[in-house]
Amino acid sequence: MRRPTSTYSIAALDAERGEMGVAVQSHWFSVGSLVPWCEAGVGVVATQSMVEPAYGPRILSLLRFGMSAEEALEALVRMDSLRDYRQIGVVDVRGGAAAYTGSRCIPEAGHLIGEGFTVQANIMRSAEVWPAMAEAFRRARGELAERLLEALLAGERAGGDLRGMQSAAILIVRARPTGRPWLDKLVDLRVEDSSNPLRELQRLLRLHKAYQHANRGDELASQGRFDEAMKEYDAASSLAPEVEEHEFWKAVTMLNHGRVREAAPILRRVFEENRAMITLLRRLPGTGLLKLSAQEVEKILSCLKIG
User: Fold this and answer.
1) Domains of the chain (ranges, CATH numbers)
2) Do the Cβ atoms of 57 and 37 come closer than 8 Å?
3) How far apart are CA 118 and CA 111, in angstroms?
4) What DSSP letter does each residue of 81-129 carry, written as one string?
5) Model pTM?
6) Which pLDDT band, with edges at 50, 70 and 90, does 6 fall under?
7) Cα 295–283–218 angle (5° rounding)?
């Protein structure tokens, strides 16, 4: 039997956006490797307390073969000789939600089932943690990742883990699979060890959104949709101004569309932050990613007074 993974988590489906996922915070190292289990088109599971990771794939397997969240959870709990120490939350792709808190989970421990979601917690400072999480999730607006994070933050404000904070994670998949599994995982962020994992998770989620915009910009640029690509690059830079590479690739796109004058000041700022990007620019003509010759790149660098 494992040590108790002191944890609070939320499992939820956002049917309107077609997303479902799990978010968790714990005073435990690398909680994201143990608690959240998600499969596109099937459901999501949070397994904690005296955690048995096998609950994740086993419940997902039962959901895949047509069981409801409640039926799958009941089937596994019934066969578990250590069920009194377990805590699990399950949401299926149809929005069915179920949860279980064993009678020997360390107080304060409990769960709350809502419409399309479930929150669960153990070893909390206060029995207000999981109700606060549920209320925050109901009130929150925006993307599912942001709503899940709001629930975690509310749980911390209500007392959180009795022993403090250490790690956190958010895992989100599509409710309707694409047939291409590598596209079905929408968010997969983990903070393995931190004095404030929720603050770090907020930072990572901001960067995740920024890189989504940057990647979308690359797609649009490859389709020749220059103005739309610029908007995506601008959104990426606005969300993550500390990432100079977003500005670099924006400038490269400008160069590929003959906008040398517009690209020049951007490149100058990038090179002031990171001179390694000068070498990167010089290497691009040979790859086909930059539609300029090596000589033309050197002329631009010369005009910028960069050797």
Assistant:
1) 7-195 (3.60.20.10), 210-303 (1.25.40.10)
2) yes
3) 7
4) TTGGGEEEEEEETTS-EEEEE-TTSPSS-EEEEETTEEEEE-SBS-TTH
5) 0.94
6) confident
7) 110
